[in-house]
Amino acid sequence: MSPLLLIILPVLQAAEYRVVHLGDSVETIAQALGEPALAADIRALNQIDADTQPAIGSLLELPITPGPPLVEQQGAVLHASGEVTATLPDQAPGPATPGLELPQGSTVCTGPGSYATLRLARSSGGLAHDDVNLLAETCLTLVSAVSRAAERSSVLRVESGSIAIRAADESPGTVVVETASGITTGRGGGFRVSREADATRTEALDAPVAVLGAGQEVAVGAGQGSRTATGQAPSPPVDLLLGTIPQRPQLDQPLRRPDFGWTAVEGALGYRVEIATSDDFSSIVAADGAPDPSWAPQLLFLPYRVQGLWWRVAAFDRVGFLGYPSEPRELVLPAGVGP
Questions:
Q1: What is the rounded CA–CA span in Å between residue 75 and residue 210?
Q2: What domains can you pick out in the chain, each with its CATH number?
Q3: Of the candidates 184, 190, 230, the residue with the CA atom closest to the CA atom of residue 211
Q4: How far apart, in whole angstroms, are the C-alpha atoms of residue 221 and residue 166?
């Protein structure tokens, strides 16, 4: 009889992280966790000497703490349009189809003209959740997604492109977005993060966020934006442009040709138009820029076997900050077009 070969595979354990904010120290973080003695464990886990403190904007891994168990959340692909690929840990890249589960360490990338929506984490009851929209030519890694009782926290790394953390429907979760330039962190979603050539742009829409870089922290209120150049402190917040009002096509007018128009926004350098198959824009299928308050592409490929299409538009200013989107307006398809 052949001897029994026992192979023990390593088990990936859920990891919880904490951003170091202004005024934080290893000791105050341990106290906030309810166990001052954890300071030594935090230092050991993150290789921090006893006589030093982590820099503002550092991302610390936390040790296991007493209380409710820490549960790793399984991310998932909710929507994919166009060329969207997923690379799971220890696997080759493959199509990111809706329903694909994303363990921590997974990377999702969208190609030109392609979009995706991911679910990061859910509450224990399954109702509250954190979702992120990936715009075209974006690569995102799900570093961590965990929950403890009803609390949720996720860490994302954006290598390129733009993402939008959607506002949570129920209880807020904490989402940390890491780039080569710094960190943006907010609770409850409702903010965007975009990688530029040598900087990161943050736009807070529904709730305040903290932007950290080069050992400095800036509080960005709802309706404001900040840019963080690599190796530099975040810029002071600036006000975002307000939303516009769609005018063409008129309500209840069938879309016979792609001719869109909206009211001009003072101070706008241009506009961004988005079309989705849901009124919450969790399923974007097309997006484009326009220099003026009108958009009439020669060709517009849209899915027609859908229950509905909606469009919205937002203005961006002269330094690139994208403002508030307009209220969604449904597109009426001509008779005979549709499911």
A1: 24
A2: 16-62 (3.10.350), 71-239 (2.60.120.1440), 246-331 (2.60.40.10)
A3: 184
A4: 16
Q: Is 220 exposed, middle or buried (0-12, 13-18, 19+ CB in 10 A)?
A: buried
Determine contact, residues 193/162, Cβ cutoff 8 Å.
yes
Q: At CB < 8 A and 24+ separation, what contacts does 66-70 make?
A: 66/34, 66/35, 67/34, 67/148, 68/148, 68/149, 69/148, 70/14, 70/16, 70/146, 70/147, 70/148
Q: Give the per-residue pLDDT at 185.
A: 98
Whole-angstrom distance, CA of residue 325 vs CA of residue 167: 14
- H helical segments located in the chain: 26-32, 38-46
Burial class (CB in 10 A: 0-12, 13-18, 19+), 279: middle
pLDDT digits (tens, 9 = 90+) for 87-96: 999 999 999 9
Nearest to 164 by CA among 214, 206, 122: 206
Q: What are 5-41's pLDDT values in tens digits?
A: 433 333 346 789 999 999 999 999 999 988 899 999 9
pTM, rounded to two decimals = 0.91
